[in-house]
Amino acid sequence: MSQQTSNFVPASNSSDIGRLNFIIQTALSGMRTAMPVQVLSVTNDGGVSPIGTVSLKALVQGKDGNGNAIPHGTIFNAPYLRIQGGANAVIIDPQVGDIGLGIVCDRDISAVQNSKKEAPPGSSRKNDMSDMVYLSSIISATTPVQYIQFNSAGITITSPQDVIINCNNSVVNSTLSASVTAPAINLRANGQTLLSFVTSTFQNLFNSHTHPVVGSQTTAPNQQMNSTHLTSTVKGA
Q1: Paired sense of beta strands 216-217 and 154-158, if any
Q2: The pLDDT of residue 165
Q3: Which residues contact 190 (CB under 8 A, 6 or more apart)?
Q4: Integer Cα distance of 99 and 149 in angstroms
Q5: Contacts (Cβ under 8 Å, ≥6 apart) of 185
């Protein structure tokens, strides 16, 4: 898939050194290292699964000897980078349209891809774009809407969708304070329901309650409860 560009200029034929330099430059132009590529398709969609593959389009076109642009073909079955160690991973699969960096391996990697272990080259090709690996995004005009942000102010997790944490045990340690702000808060333990401690019914009873005294009743409390004193329904054991 490597496409060479002619480096011939009239000076190349004026001396032995010029001709030799032309031969060397032409040979070197066939070597591929890294290039910007665009994702055309992805086998994975963010689910919990092994690392998948992408099809890619090289964005820097080739040129013929007359300087005419030559588009590259599609690069199929390219593995992509995931931050993973053993069964531990950060799963962020590429998406169609992403522009990232593709690096080209110096030998055919297809046998290693298929066997997932040590293997000889799958063919005699060298520095070929068929053996590209997609690293990560490098060019984007899109502002993230779902992200984990690290800066001098701390760490921020933002998502317009649900944030779900699954684990055996969870511990939150805060040296100053901890707060949760939400329209409703539901805590569950063993599926048992614990009614809200301070409800509107409780509020009405508190605000209107009196005590009998000899010959009469006391008045309602001077300190009245309002809506800010209500608590959300929670679930507990």
Answers
A1: unpaired
A2: 94
A3: 237
A4: 21
A5: 232, 234
* Tally of helices (H runs) and strands (E runs) in the chain: 3, 15
Look up residue 142 and give its amino acid. T
Residue 215: how many other CB atoms lie within 10 Å: 5
Burial of residue 222 (CB within 10 Å: 0-12, 13-18, 19+) is exposed
- Rg of the chain, C-alpha, whole Å: 33
Q: Coil, helix or strand for 23?
A: helix
In the structure encoding, which two tokens stand for residue 69, read together? 């642009």
3-state secondary structure of 208: helix
pLDDT tens column, 167-200: 999 999 999 999 988 887 777 776 665 555 566 7
Q: What is the mean pLDDT of the chain?
A: 85
Question: All domains of the chain, ordered by start, with CATH?
Answer: 32-139 (2.40.50.230), 182-210+222-237 (no CATH)
Residue 35 bridge partners (DSSP): 102
Q: Which amino acid is at 54?
A: V
CB atoms within 10 A of CB 39: 22
**With the CA atoms of 72, 91, 108 and 60 taken in that order, what torsion angle do they form, in degrees rounded to the nearest 10?**
20
Asked if 5 contacts 62 with a C-beta cutoff of 8 angstroms, the reply is yes
Q: How far apart are CA 193 and CA 86, in angstroms?
A: 40
**DSSP-based three-state secondary structure for 7:** coil
113, containing H or E segment = helix 110-115
